[in-house]
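pinging the channel bc i need a second pair of eyes. not urgent but kinda urgent?? the chain im working w is below, pasted from the shared doc
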Amino acid sequence: MQKEQGKIKFVYMKKIKNLLFILPFVLCFISLFILLEKDINKYILILFMLPALIFFVYKQIHKIFIFIFTLTAIVFGFLTFKFNFLSFLILIIFITALFVLYRIFKPKEVVDPQIQNKNKELSFFKEELLNEELYLKTEKETLEKNLEKIVNFYMISKDLIQNFTDYQNATTALSTILEKQTGVLYVVIVSNEKNSNGIKELKILSKLSEEKKEKWLNAIKSNNEILNLKHPAVINSLYKTDNKSVIGWPIIVNNTLSACVFLVVEDEYIQEYIEQGNLYIPHLQLGTERIILFLETKEKARTDALTGVYLRRYFLERLNIEIKRAKRYKTNFHILMLDIDFFKKINDNYGHLTGDKVLIEISKTIEQNIRPTDILCRYGGEEFIILLNNLTDNDAINTAQNIRKEIKKIKFNENNIEFSVTVSIGIAKYKDSFNSKEVISVADKALYEAKKSGRDRIVSFITKK
């Protein structure tokens, strides 16, 4: 603090010293100017101030005092000669002299080569720092945008997790979220599932109008560009569906295309949603694996571990649904109750493992002789029950006969002993007055009659209770 005060005091002292130095010159000039009577003498006096000006500039006396000295000469010139040639000549002489003298006596800077090199280095570093600042600013903007995307992605992922319980919920949730994004016109989600013939094909899960759905079905059918898709990309073969760009997000589980999300987007957003696909796909794959695991667990809970056919509880659930449908649409269905004849003897003579083999083979044979839409269930130990949809009475009886004959053809071999088995089947037809217990009861009574009348036969109770 004291050092700063000392500097300020020194500056003021120097200014006062310079003022005291120039003041006598100005006073002498004014005194002589007053004493002189002729204008020409005053003109010469003013011009004699020029050497003094040179002296002040050469000595580098404070600029403000040099300007005061020059201004004094110009002002007195105008006071003497008014606005005529001599006054303007004085103005030009002093202004020009002041400019020239400053150019002549300006101290030349002697730059040390080391300092000069250092200055060049500093200039280079300054430029580098400016470039680095510009780069960091760009990076900051990019990171802020990415952060915004990540936060948005996190919120979307959080919403999706809650809905990944089955394909329909996941499809609805994902479509709703993506269709709210800028540049997305609409979303189509497909799954790669086995059809009734056991062949995998692309199935549309999204809700579309009939016309649009037909277009998409034709476009995705046996589409190798989709089936071979490994990463987010534009699907050129789908452009014709709406004359818009379509981006595919493949969902691959266990090295197989499990599903695919198609985004119909505006052209300027193509690259953005290809990049976003790389963020979404890992999450969608995890969600799909979760659905598959959930469905597999659910399927195991409703299927028999030995034969792979449905269990009794699931059959009753489906039967109640079918009854409601029949009441609503005035349709009928048939129930087949099937029992293996003398199954206890098979277990006693050949062992329970052989009995298990018999159950497995019979369940496979039944499945081969009914339609994929029919429902087969292991109802008890050696009892099976079948729900046949939309068949005439004769077709239902023929189906039962085919099952009975095909089972009878099976040859089992245990300890070099060959044997075959037969089954008895009872048939009931649903009527409006039946509930689930009653229709099963009718089929059970028909089965009892088949066994009572000699086994290896079919008894049909297709009449009202």
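so The first helix runs from residue 2 to 35. and Residues 110-150 form one domain. — does that match what u expected or am i reading it wrong
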